[in-house]
Amino acid sequence: MEGDSAGDGETELLDESHYVAVSPRPEPAMSNISENEFSCHCCYDILVNPTTLTCGHNFCRHCLALWWESSHKNECPECREKWEGFPKINILMRDATDKLFSEVVQRRRMEIQANPKISRSLLAFQRYSGLQENLFYQTKGMFMEVLYFVCLQVVVLVFHWGSGVMEQHDLLISKPVSHWTSEDVVYWLENLGPWTEPYRGAFQQENVNGRLLLMLGDEELMKKPYNIENSVHRRAVLAELDRVKALGVKPPQNLWEYKAANAGKSLFLLYALKRSPRLTIFYLYLFDYSETFLPFLHTCCPPFTHTEEPVESIWFTKLLLLLLEPSWQQWVEFLVKYCVLPYQLIAEFAWDWLAIHYWTSRFIIVNAMLLSVLEGCFLWRLWTTARLRTLPQQMWNHLWKMLSQGFAFALMWPFVPQFVCNCLFYWALYFSPIINIDLVVQQLMHPETQAQ
Description:
The chain has helices at residues 2-22, 61-71, 91-100, 102-114, 116-140, 142-163, 165-174, 182-191, 197-205, 210-214, 218-222, 231-247, 255-261, 263-275, 277-287, 289-300, 314-321, 328-340, 342-352, 358-384, 391-412, 418-445, and strands at residues 51-52, 58-59. By secondary structure, the protein is an all-alpha fold. The chain has three domains: 34-140, Zinc/RING finger domain, C3HC4 (zinc finger) (Herpes Virus-1), CATH 3.30.40; 174-251, Transcription Factor, Ets-1 (DNA polymerase, domain 1, Orthogonal Bundle); 255-450, no CATH class. A hairpin with a 5-residue loop joins strand 1 (51-52) and strand 2 (58-59). The protein is elongated, with a radius of gyration of 37 Å. The N and C termini lie far apart (94 Å).
């Protein structure tokens, strides 16, 4: 019995010790949590939508927005360390403050919503957040874009080198006409258009070189062995021959020849027409009227009168237009497009060259359309934000910027390597449309992010 009693006592002790071992821990008292641990370092009140910076400090979302709007700096208000990326709301801390201090947080949120200044700051801060995210995606896709550009440039250069076009351009536009061989003369005549095919054989049989070509006139071309009896064809040949005599070399007749003959001017015009088409066209009118501006005007605004004979070639038409001054109807049409839609002039000029530069003309046309949309969005923003009165000041700033950049380009041009110039040229020609597509999408889909 005593043994049983002892056994029962031991069992009770074991049960008691087991009970103590498995009993749950007492929950900490709520009084141990201090409000200072969940307070903002700006307003020193309970955090509302707490935002954690890279330095570890926490602030209310609206406090951080007010600080950013007043200082325009991406740095912590307490330790002045710059944050990386864009700060986001700490969800874990937000849920904790909502549970522990629900009444205080609810009251503060109502006060924030009722304050229009805080609402505007939060909206501007959110716009800035969208811009930072777009910048991240742009940086992420930069490698693919650069790879696309490099591949495109390699393809274009391989095409030109493989076809021998670049060598022919360098040969005729830089070689004096007095040193031309009979093959050079036939190639020059071939570039005038398909309508010269009946006359090439006579030039080849007579071994007409550059010196003999310079001595040919209207009577010689009309008689044997050349037999150019068509007066319009004869005028076209003589007009181009006059240009050769004036320049001393073969004048450029397409984009690549113009680039080879005027490397600096072509690069300048490519970037200037994109940034400021009106100023660039006015510059051509003042300083490059006969060689560039006049063909440009005749191409974009052709005359209303038509010749009785059929037009057999695009080059044939261009040669005839070089002999004419624009009519007043052409000037009116040109000035209207120049003032309202200057990029349409560039698109029409590229469209006229579609049969010669198939893909290049399409890139230019698409880029001109995109630039027109961007200009329209810019004017619409000025109108909607009631800042249209600032347009004269912005035009003056743009004029000063273009003049200073053009002057800097003229000074730096002799020191820029040709390879770098070619890269910049193909970048502006083929890569700009891709960049402008992204800009147009941002303007149309998220116009509010462009307000800052």
